[in-house]
Recover the amino acids of this structure.
């Protein structure tokens, strides 16, 4: 699985309230509508300019705070190909994989990549490329790849339960 | 090699004799918690093609996030949840007004020491106050738990936080929690299990202990644990007896027998010691919970709203502390003081003791038990440019509804004193 796009770069401790505001959590249920509010309180330019395959690159503890799954869903629906960070808040990490959004830990790439860089990420090979630069990350576990391929936990489990 | 609390609790939840940090297990939680988000989880559950919840008696559904419903949309969510609860025979359902899910789980003794609760709420860590393992998960995962009763978990590494001595007057568990988060940072406990112990913890009331694992969510932890003792067993036993109709003594023995304690030679990734005597009231400043300073550094900052409540600090002792501060005083002109009890039981006890009367006389507004404006749903949304001082656990930008507002976090007496003065105030100086 390969994703290609441009880098949107952010800092440390970006919380789920600024990724998807709490005031929408019980009023917006349509996934496309969620995408229109992605990063609303962090970067008002994001939702209207993000393109399919774009990659979020961030520092430590991306997605801290609330467990709200819409924080992962809104990015997935906005077309984000992957989030690359120094570290993830644990519930966001689970929510990302459970919605088919690759969450990649690669501090070296985070240190080097800048806003607007064109990157290519190969999930099976565990590589992030920018031109001739290559960074390696531990390939995702088989179960995580299956989740991503299936499009998330619900479709994955549906198939597994044979329904 | 000895085992940590997390290793023991997750071995139990996986039904295997021994697990170690780093291992991935299939856990079968005793309780699966959800709240207003159950409406969205129901949709996911049916997408799985499953008709019946596997273990309806393990579900706890508590409506608290937007109660009573502020809009038709919210009301419709609640109605869908009520219908599902009836169809699936879910007995542990608590409707609008009963209180905040974490508080209600405790009051109803639905979760007990040594047990595992997984919830679609990041503050599911809360139940660690009694020595249970509580961890937040996502909505999809709760739908999966409803369908199958199990979920994979990675056994976390553990760290210890030890508090010795007696907290000075005016310094609370909230201040201690803020200090730890300020010291270690928003990712200071990422993926970890945090174990609290020491004489300073043992001296804390049950209500104060609840603050610690609740706040640890703000440090990125998977769960947090407070060593259970007689005070915990005595608090839970009559509640379990009331719910189950069994004798209190029998319940107490069962609760105590289920408690888990780490081995003395368990391995810890880190250990932090605090001397209670050296602590003071702290404030988390906008816009992150780890932006912590001593109260004295921000005293005098004007506030337009003071909010006492939430799963962190909406209990009887918090309301009592506020009532003591405001007794015979008036809320400052230009400042709104909002008090929302964490549960209906807290509200009734506060009424019986006259605290609500005192607060209302001082000019406070009293809200319906629930989460209130904590995450910006309703009942006290600040205007752009306004400053709120709150007993809640989060002050992220936009948290209470608008990104142009500021939120300071503090202990209940500080929030009450700030309501009286219209500015951030140390209650010891009133």
């Amino acid at each position: 699985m390969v994703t290609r796009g441009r880098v949107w770069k952010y800092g440390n401790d970006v919380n789920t309230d600024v990724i998807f505001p709490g005031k929408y959590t019980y009023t917006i249920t349509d996934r496309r509508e969620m995408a229109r509010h992605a990063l609303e309180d962090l970067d008002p330019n994001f939702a209207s300019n993000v393109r399919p395959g774009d990659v979020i690159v961030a520092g430590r503890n991306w997605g801290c705070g609330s467990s709200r799954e819409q924080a992962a869903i809104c990015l997935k629906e906005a077309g984000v190909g992957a989030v690359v960070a120094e570290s993830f808040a644990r519930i966001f990490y689970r929510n990302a994989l459970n919605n088919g959004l690759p969450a990649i830990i690669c501090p070296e790439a985070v240190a080097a990549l800048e806003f607007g860089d064109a990157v290519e990420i190969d999930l099976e090979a565990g590589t992030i490329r920018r031109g001739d630069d290559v960074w390696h990350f531990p390939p995702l576990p088989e179960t995580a790849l299956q989740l991503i391929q299936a499009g998330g936990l619900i479709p994955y489990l549906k198939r597994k339960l044979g329904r | 090699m000895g085992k940590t609390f997390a290793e023991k609790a997750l071995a139990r939840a996986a039904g295997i004799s021994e697990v170690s940090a780093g291992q991935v297990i299939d856990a079968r939680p005793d309780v699966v918690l959800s709240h207003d988000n159950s409406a969205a989880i129901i949709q996911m559950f049916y997408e799985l093609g499953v008709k019946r919840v596997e273990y309806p008696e393990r579900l706890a559904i508590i409506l608290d996030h937007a109660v009573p419903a502020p809009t038709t949309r919210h009301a419709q969510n609640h109605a869908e949840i009520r219908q599902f609860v009836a169809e699936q025979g879910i007995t542990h359902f608590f409707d609008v007004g009963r209180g905040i899910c974490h508080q209600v789980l405790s009051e109803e003794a639905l979760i007990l020491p040594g047990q595992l609760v997984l919830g679609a709420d990041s503050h599911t860590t809360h139940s660690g106050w009694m020595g249970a393992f509580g961890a937040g998960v996502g909505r999809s995962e709760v739908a999966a738990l409803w369908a199958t009763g199990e979920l994979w978990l990675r056994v976390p590494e553990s760290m210890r936080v030890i508090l010795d001595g007696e907290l000075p007057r005016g310094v609370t568990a909230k201040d201690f929690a803020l200090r730890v988060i300020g010291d270690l940072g928003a990712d200071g406990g990422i993926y970890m299990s945090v174990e609290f112990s020491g004489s300073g913890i043992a001296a804390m009331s049950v209500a104060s202990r609840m603050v610690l694992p609740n706040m640890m969510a703000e440090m990125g932890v998977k769960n947090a644990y407070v060593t259970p003792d007689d005070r915990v067993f005595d608090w839970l036993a009559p509640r379990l007896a009331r719910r189950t109709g069994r004798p209190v003594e029998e319940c107490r023995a069962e609760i105590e027998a289920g408690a888990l304690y780490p081995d003395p030679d368990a391995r810890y990734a880190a250990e932090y010691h605090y001397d209670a005597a050296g602590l003071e009231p702290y404030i988390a400043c906008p816009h992150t919970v780890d932006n912590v300073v001593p109260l004295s550094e921000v005293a005098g900052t004007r506030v337009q709203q003071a909010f006492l409540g939430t799963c962190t600090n909406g209990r009887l002792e918090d309301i009592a502390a506020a009532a003591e501060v405001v007794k015979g005083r008036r809320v400052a002109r230009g400042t709104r003081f909002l008090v929302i009890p964490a549960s209906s039981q807290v509200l009734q006890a506060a009424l019986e003791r006259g605290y609500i009367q005192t607060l209302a006389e001082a000019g406070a507004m009293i809200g319906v038990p629930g989460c209130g404006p904590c995450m910006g749903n309703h009942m006290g949304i600040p205007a752009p440019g306004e400053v709120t001082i709150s007993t809640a656990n989060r002050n992220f930008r936009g948290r209470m509804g608008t990104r142009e507002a500021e939120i300071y976090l503090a202990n209940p007496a500080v929030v009450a004193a700030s309501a009286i003065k219209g500015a951030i105030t140390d209650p010891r100086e009133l």
In short: The longest helix of chain A spans residues 90-98.
